[in-house]
Design a protein that fits this description.
The chain is mainly beta and 96 residues long. The chain has one domain (21-93): Umud Fragment, subunit A, CATH 2.10.109. It is built from 1 helix and 5 strands; from the N terminus they run αβββββ. The chain has a 5-stranded antiparallel sheet with strand order 1-2-5-3-4, with no helix packed on it. A hairpin with a 2-residue loop joins strand 3 (59-64) and strand 4. The chain is globular and about 45 Å long. It starts with 14 loop residues before the first helix and ends with a strand. 12% of the residues are buried.
C-alpha cells in the first residue's frame, strides 16, 4: 500500500530537498557497468556524498589504479586498509 507524503503540497515534489543533506559534497554519477555485490546496474544513477563517512556494509565509489569503481565495503573493513574512498553512495535511482 502506498500513501502520499504527509507534507505534500501543490508546489511540486523536490527530490533534492529530500535526498541531499550536503549539496556541496553531493554528486550524481551514472554507473558504467555493474557491481552485483553493491546491487548497482549499468545505467543506474548514483547519488554520492563525499562527506558521508564510509563504514562496512555501505556502498562506496572507490578509486583503484586511477579508475572509479563501486563496491560494498566488506565486514571488518577499516579506513587503513589502503582503499581510496571517493564517496559513499546514498541512493541508487533505477528505471523500472
Amino acid at each position: 500500500m502506498f500513501v502520499a507524503s504527509e507534507d505534500y503540497n501543490d508546489v511540486g515534489l523536490k527530490l533534492d530537498e529530500r535526498l541531499i543533506k550536503r549539496p556541496a559534497a553531493t554528486f550524481f554519477l551514472r554507473a558504467a557497468g555493474s557491481a552485483p555485490d553493491a546491487d548497482v546496474k549499468d545505467g543506474d544513477l548514483l547519488i554520492v556524498d563525499r562527506a558521508e563517512p564510509p563504514a562496512p556494509g555501505r556502498v562506496v565509489v572507490a578509486v583503484v589504479r586511477g579508475e572509479m569503481l563501486m563496491r560494498r565495503l566488506p565486514p571488518g573493513w577499516r579506513e587503513d586498509d589502503g582503499l581510496e574512498i571517493w564517496g559513499v553512495v546514498l541512493y541508487v535511482v533505477r528505471a523500472p
